[in-house]
C-alpha cells in the first residue's frame, strides 16, 4: 500500500511486536558493528559491510523491518562484483540526511526530541541503550564524500 503524501521524518519503533523487538535488539547492533566504511552521499549515507556468509540476508532483514518504522527512507543494497563488499544506502529527501546524522550522533537525544518514538515500552528503551554507542561509533568514522 502506498501513501500519497510524504511521511514525517520520525522513526516509530512501536510498530513492532515484542518478538520482533527482541530479534532486532539481538541483530541490529551487531550489524552496525560490522560497518567497515561510511560514505557520505548528497542525500544520505552508504555503509560498507563485509561480503561474508549471511550478511546480505542480515541487511535485507534490516531493510524489511526498517521500512516499517521509517517509511521515509530510500534503501539500496549493493553487492560489488568479484566478492567485493556489500553496501547499504540510506537516503531520501532533503531532511533525511540530517535525521541520520542526529540519530547516529545521539540516539538518546533523538528519542527525547521525538525523532524516535518508543512509547513507554521498557524493551524499546533497552534497545536504544544498546544501539546508541554502536551508532555513535559508526558515524564517528571519517566518512568519504561522493
Task: Give an overview of the whole structure.
By secondary structure, the protein is an alpha/beta fold. The chain has one domain. Helices cover 47% and strands 20% of the residues. It has 5 helices and 7 strands; from the N terminus they run βαββαββααβαβ. The chain has helices at residues 18-33, 55-69, 94-105, 107-112, 122-140; strands at residues 11-12, 37-41, 44-49, 74-79, 86-91, 116-117, 144-145. The strands form 2 sheets. It has a 5-stranded mixed sheet with strand order 4-5-3-2-7, with helices on one face. α1 (18-33) crosses α2. The mean pLDDT is 87.
Question: How would you concisely characterize the structure shown here?
Answer:
The chain is an alpha/beta fold and 146 residues long. Helix content is 47%, strand content 20%.
In N-to-C order, the SSE pattern is EHEEHEEHHEHE
Question: What share of residues is helical?
Answer: 40-55%
* SS field, number of helical segments: 5
Compute the number of structural domains: 1
What class, by secondary structure content? alpha/beta
How much of the sequence is in beta strands?
15-25%
Number of strands: 7
The averaged pLDDT comes out at: 87
Q: Describe the biggest sheet?
A: 5 strands, mixed
Rg, alpha carbons: 15 Å
Give the low-confidence spans: none
End-to-end separation: 33 Å
Shape: globular
Strand order of the largest sheet: 4-5-3-2-7
Defining traits:
single chain; 146 residues; five-stranded mixed sheet; two-stranded parallel sheet; 5 helices; 7 strands
Amino acid at each position: 500500500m502506498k501513501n500519497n503524501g510524504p511521511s514525517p521524518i520520525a522513526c516509530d519503533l512501536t510498530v513492532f511486536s515484542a518478538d520482533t523487538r527482541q530479534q532486532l535488539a539481538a541483530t541490529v547492533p551487531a550489524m552496525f558493528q560490522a560497518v567497515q566504511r561510511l560514505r557520505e552521499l548528497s542525500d544520505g549515507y552508504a555503509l560498507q559491510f563485509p561480503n561474508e556468509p549471511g550478511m546480505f540476508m542480515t541487511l535485507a532483514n534490516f531493510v524489511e523491518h526498517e521500512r516499517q518504522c521509517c517509511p521515509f527512507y530510500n534503501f539500496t543494497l549493493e553487492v560489488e562484483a568479484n566478492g567485493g563488499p556489500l553496501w547499504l544506502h540510506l537516503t531520501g529527501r532533503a531532511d533525511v540526511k540530517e535525521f541520520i546524522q542526529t540519530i547516529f550522533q545521539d540516539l538518546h537525544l533523538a528519542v527525547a526530541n521525538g525523532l524516535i518514538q518508543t512509547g513507554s515500552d521498557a524493551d524499546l528503551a533497552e534497545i536504544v541503550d544498546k544501539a546508541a554507542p554502536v551508532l555513535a561509533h559508526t558515524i564517528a568514522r571519517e566518512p568519504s564524500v561522493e
